TrEMBL record:
Cross-referenced InterPro entries: Osmotin/thaumatin-like_sf (IPR037176), Thaumatin (IPR001938)
Keywords carried by this UniProt record: Disulfide bond, Signal
Transmembrane segments: none
Protein's name in the database: Osmotin isoform
Domain of life: Eukaryota
Signal peptide coordinates: 1-29
């Protein structure tokens, strides 16, 4: 066999090396079990990718996979208001998540925050820095305390990180239940 034939046979393998390195890298995939126990539709069945932004009020499950130190960061957020009770928790061992947010926030919502289908956040209603935290420095308000009292582990205002962000090792599996 000539050197020319050996080189021609080896070239396709060289092109495969970058692909093989991508395939063989170690990755931790997370699985999500999503269940709707509500008597109404919470999401469009079969839609796995967002096609638009929702309008407040929205209860949010926020998630960032394999971030700093190979940790998942996740939370339940009421910063955009509340419209559906939710449980967002790890099902793998080794970490804990927020307690389910199951309070009757819609039924107890202050009149000024009431909205069709939910309870607005104060930023949507008042549009001031005190509630929107646009300047980057803000603190809890009576309205954020209303949400925090009912769902202690959920974000209640934009700077509520210390009591509302949870971490688990990358690759942890999660459960999201609407109307738990």
């Amino acid at each position: 066999m000539s050197l020319y034939n050996i080189v021609n046979m080896a070239l396709p393998l060289l092109y495969l090396l970058p692909l093989l390195s991508l395939i063989s890298t170690s990755a931790h995939a997370a699985n999500f079990l999503i269940r709707n126990n509500c008597p109404y539709t919470v999401w469009a069945a079969g839609v796995l990718q967002c096609t638009a932004y929702g309008a407040p009020p929205n209860t949010l499950a926020e998630y960032a996979h394999n971030q700093f130190s190979n940790l998942d960061f996740f939370d339940i957020s009421l910063v955009d208001g509340f419209n559906v009770p939710m449980d967002f928790s790890p099902v793998s061992s080794g970490c804990r998540g927020p307690r389910a947010c199951t309070a009757d926030i819609n039924g107890q919502c202050p009149n000024v925050l009431r909205a069709p289908g939910g309870c607005n956040n104060p930023c949507t209603v008042f549009k001031t820095d005190q509630y929107c935290c646009n300047s980057g420095s803000c603190s809890p308000t009576d309205y954020s305390r209303f949400f925090k009292t009912r769902c202690p582990d959920a974000y209640s205002y934009p700077k509520d990180d210390p009591t509302s962000t949870f971490t688990c090792p990358g690759g942890t599996n999660y459960r999201v239940v609407f109307c738990p």
